[in-house]
Automatic annotation (TrEMBL), chains A, B:
An annotated GO BP: negative regulation of DNA-templated transcription
The keyword Metal-binding is annotated on this UniProt entry: no
Protein name listed in UniProt: Redox-sensing transcriptional repressor Rex
Function field: Modulates transcription in response to changes in cellular NADH/NAD(+) redox state.
Limits of the CoA-binding domain: 85-186
Organism of this sequence: Phocaeicola plebeius
Length: 217, 217
């Protein structure tokens, strides 16, 4: 190709990455309604984001719209799913098979978005050696050896807060490169390690607080 | 009281609300280690947030630190848990008992942070009339009547994207005041309705993208 597409040269901003799944789900909806094309103006009207912002976000993805008609829906879906990494499976380990950890193991939906949990680690003797939805639970001590063999790069962290940092350190020492942190604990990692914090509790706190304000009015 | 505390007059900013659970989990860890007092400087060192930011965030909460020693750990935990709404249970309904919805119903951990799912709604005849972890699943048609009786204000949205907006509209029409949206769909609600978006898929997208950048290097 003579022209280098933008995505090859620029690091895509995180807010853009977070918005792209909205456009993807909107495109899927359009497809279901039988639409062949969708414009940024149409998406804008439906999800309440500036059309120019949408066009700018989509400029990071390797797709171009046609004047007046917009983006081809099928192509937009395919390009976005590829770009977001939802079409190929990324192997992951889960650490801590408690209530939330167990729930995530049972959520087969994650694999539709590219995450395949291939093993879990815990120290509870009642859990070690068992499986959840076919996913084996190993003793935490087995992690390093297994990882070297499996080549897993992603770790899902669902341990109690008092061992969150310890387990993170073990993960990193053992070769994990990205940590999806579900604990309400702010973990410390070397700069080269990717961290995504999904704190359900922080979202609850915001929701309760805003709800109280409404009720007080 | 002669002095009105700050939290009575100002709306607490969302970034502050999102950081408070970090301080809470840090205080819990300090307590476990036998510490009686913790200063913002200590918290700062551990979780890598500016001490002045921490002090500012905590000024929204009804607690004052003592010079040199800092905040009393037990009190800090109690005040934060109260303030964040984790100590009293907020009743909620869940909409859509699919893979993620079912997983959330099984996550008893949510109740430790103040969310009690008291019922779920679906239209799947194989699910309606059954229970998950003791939580009854009703037909979606029963929602309005049940809500009027139960006084539930929070709705957890885990339906497929093609009905996300429809179900949201039903929830709002039926009296739900806060929607915890787990779908990758950007829902539209009236201004008075609280929405928290927890898109696991957006977090996955960011993680995959950043991981790819590292691997490419």
């Amino acid at each position: 190709m003579a022209v280098r597409s933008r995505k090859m040269t620029d690091k895509i901003p995180e807010p853009t990455l977070r918005r792209l799944p909205w456009y993807l789900s909107n495109a899927k909806l359009m497809k279901e309604k039988g639409e062949k094309y969708v414009s940024s103006t149409q998406i804008s009207r439906q999800i309440n984001i500036d059309a120019s912002q949408i066009a700018k976000d989509l400029s990071y993805v390797d797709i171009s719209g046609r004047t007046r008609v917009g983006y081809e829906v099928d192509l937009l879906i395919q390009v976005l799913e590829d770009f977001l990494g939802f079409t190929n499976l990324h192997k992951a380990y889960l650490f801590g098979v408690g209530s939330l950890g167990g729930a995530l193991l049972r959520d087969s939906g994650l694999s539709h978005f590219g995450l395949q949990i291939v093993g879990a680690f815990d120290i509870n003797p009642n859990l070690v050696g068992t499986t959840v939805e076919g996913i084996p639970i190993y003793h935490t001590d087995e992690f390093e050896e297994r990882r070297a063999k499996d080549g897993v790069k992603i770790g899902v962290l669902t341990v109690p807060i008092n061992i969150a940092q310890d387990i993170t350190d073990k993960m990193v020492a053992g070769g994990i490169q990205a940590v999806w942190n579900f604990t309400p604990f702010r973990i410390r990692v070397p700069e080269t390690i990717v961290v995504q914090n999904t704190s359900l509790y922080a979202h609850l706190a915001v929701m309760f607080n805003r709800l109280n304000e409404i009720i007080k009015k």
